[in-house]
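Exercise 3.2. Students should predict the tertiary structure of the chain below and write it as structure tokens, then compare their answer with the key that follows.

Predict this chain's 3D structure.
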Amino acid sequence: NSRKFAEMETLYLTGSSGGLGREVRSYFIERGWNVAGFDAFDDEFRHAQFFFQKIDSTSEDSIAIAFGEAVKKFGAPRTLLATIGGLKPWADLEEISENDFHFILDLNVTATFLCVKQAVKLMKPLGKGTIITVGADTALHSEPKKTIYIAAKAAVIAMTESLAEETKAYGVNTNCIAPKVIHTKANESWGSSEEIPTWTEP
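Answer key:
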């Protein structure tokens, strides 16, 4: 079995238990990939081509240990898709608490940085790999009531652009996608009936 797994492409997927993560997980498994999933929550999905590790996305040690276990199972990643991220309901700046400010930055920026850092360590010696981060369309233009979320996603986009200049030197392609709000069950909990039809399907 280990030989079989070694011959298959492997995706490292952070946020694998979320709405977007579940869709991505199924997509890659159906196409014959191994998927190593990482999340703070285990949605109890089980499959021969899926290996789950629970992580604290703000802890470098937690992520390093989890990635290490995934290497033992499936080998180094061919691709990292970092989908961990999220938001709080839109609010005016003066209504945003300090806790929410740090929560949004940690969920979007810190988690992306730490997961990408571990992936780079695994891909660089191999001279190949693909890293995909998730920004947001709203970070490319200004909108009211989204100040901290926009700042966080803008940081992800800028970080990815800079990293792409570094990783291309050793054969790793790094890109950021910037979708509109993605239509997931979690986002439905705060979206209005007018907003939801305009969202991007996973």
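Discussion points: Helices lie at 2-6, 19-30, 60-74, 98-123, 147-167, 185-188. The mean pLDDT is 90.
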